[in-house]
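hi!! sorry for the late reply, been swamped w classes. u asked for the two structures so here they r. pasted raw, havent cleaned anything up. first the sequence of the first protein and right below it the tokens
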Amino acid sequence: MSGPGAAQNGRAVQTRGIIRAAAAGGAAGLAAGVLVLGVGGRLAMSVVVLMARARPAWSLDGTFAVVAVGALLGAGAGLAYAALRRFLPGNSLARGLLFGVLLYGVLLLFPPASARTAMAGFVSLHLPILALFGLVVLAYGAALAAAFEALRRRWPPP
């Protein structure tokens, strides 16, 4: 088939593909954000407190806030991954790790206010903290890529 109907059908398929990729990116980012950025970030915070030889203090509100921020950041980053992944070289794991490096770079350039405030309390531990949270963000990138590919395989093509 050729002509205006074919072009319109092609655009519809392309639009459905973009929507499908965005949905997969948002869902994968949300899930990886909750598990890796949220729960993993909370565990990393506990490690920092132990490294500082400070007294750990956990609260349900604080844990919920960290997990919620991880979910929101994760969903947004998942949408960015869906848009950028085809430009990243390598297999799914390599793309995820590279995306994690890029995301960490952005977070280092534009750190959330809560991160700046928290770092101020641990001046002597800046490098270990940066390395620890860098690992969390790399793990997020890998988890995001794995979840994204799993969703793309399970969802029907456009």
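now the second protein. again sequence first, tokens right under
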Amino acid sequence: RPAGPRLLVLQYGAGGAAARRAVGGRDAGKHRRTPAVPGAWWASLGGWGAAGGSGPTQPDPGPHRGVRGRLKRLSNEAASDPTWARIKTRLEFLMCDKSMVSDDLIETRRAIYAQPGFSDTMRRIMCLQEMEIRRPNMITEAQYRSIEAPTLVVWTSHDPTATPAEGKQISEMIPGAQYVVMNECGHWPQFEDAELFNRLHIDFLLGK
């Protein structure tokens, strides 16, 4: 066990850029173990999980342009008019098994969306679906390859914004990264199969 503090950075979705920067320093390989858990690649060219720059690894944004637009529309509609139906539709978009969108989950999200000013907050978040804003924040292939910390990439079989093949591409850019696909899960694997999600991370941290 290395001496000194150890940092666990859990990346999820749009948190990928921040996670990459947190583990990208000179001492990253000494004390930090980093499960990278995108859940999604945020629409392939998705700022947080795309191989940026030029060359053969640059993803084509075309196949995911419609997904980004739908995500932005559903999110802004639910935040500006937080009705039960709009929020249910927004949550079902994330799940492989739509029946997991429970009444409690809808009401919890509705209470958040109904807060004063949240509609403006959502619009600012969703601007990241616009390529001219998204592109400067993208993680490049060189940045992925510079990660020294032990890394676990957990993907899902049914994420609406990215395929398992795209997750594998990310894992192959990170030296020594482990790659696992959680089956029958969408964009919320930590909710859809919490037992497996937790076991994967605990085993990784224990070096199993």
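hope this helps!! also noticed smth abt the second:
The chain is about 45% helix and 10% strand.
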